[in-house]
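Chain X:
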Amino acid sequence: MTRAGRGKGEEKPRKLVGHSALISNTEESPVSPSRP
């Protein structure tokens, strides 16, 4: 239970951060994830 919780907790924020960084690097807009 500790391993699963840790993996899920670390994968969720990591994926979100990665996505945000990708969008920021591609569109250069950290405040425009849903807006075009």
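Chain Y:
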Amino acid sequence: MSYTTTTTTSLHSCFLLFCLLSALSCVSMFSGIETGDLEKRDDLFPQILRDEAVARLYELGKVSDGKGYLERTFLSPASMRAIILIRKWMEDAGLRTWVDQMGNVHGRVDGANANAEALLIGSHMDTVVDAGMFDGSLGIVSAISALKAMHFNGKLEKLKRPVEVIAFSDEEGVRFQTTFLGSGAIAGILPGTTLEISDKRDVMIKDFLKENSIDITEESLLKLKYDPKSVWGYVEVHIEQGPVLEQVGFPLGVVKGIAGQTRLKVTVRGSQGHAGTVPMSMRQDPMAAAAEQIVVLESLCYIYRGHSSN
């Protein structure tokens, strides 16, 4: 058992080092600092980009509302603890931090030109019930660690454009059954009526935010939108949550497209009849018809061969 644990941790460390190096490369390439410009310190990459990052991921993975499993929904008690923790890590990386009115945590460095278009990096800090600890957290920790490596080398203030790390408060939509509250506010795609959405206990989003000492109105929600002209681009490191990279033997991949969701409710109606006296030729069994539809739908998905996951 100890061998398995050690091996798994080692594999995680190697994979995460790849991810963190890719985040560092993204920040460097898009912000005007070459990775070769970073001072060669023997302890830099192992300590900041591997050991500390892995420790932080495991620490964040323990911030949960559930016992024995990970559950950290939108602005739950565990989420509020995660906000404090993430903000502390951002400040440790030399970033100026704040929490907006949708609970997103921001960490920003202006670099050499505060008025230039900013590079945004990040992911979501909320989880589903019984979640994996790398989902979302990897993108946040890798971004912070990449910038800390630059801070450690005195290169952070020399970046040619601002870089901002964002830990989005809600992606999963577990509590209010509406996804992307955090990033939706930043993108400016949330209508003011979003604040009136209620959970299963009839608590509205605006009231829930107020319970967490966040006052928000329709007007202030709209003001959270980032001007597209102020944003140079967005990068997110994320686990694949699938088997393809492992199958082809690649530690990393670049996303060219993601699965979209369309949910339909289909009703199949039939006729009731006696199981022993209605001939097969006269039956209208909705279960059999539904089963046939499922098989046809499944076969249609195979038209798109390769690694699609329809």
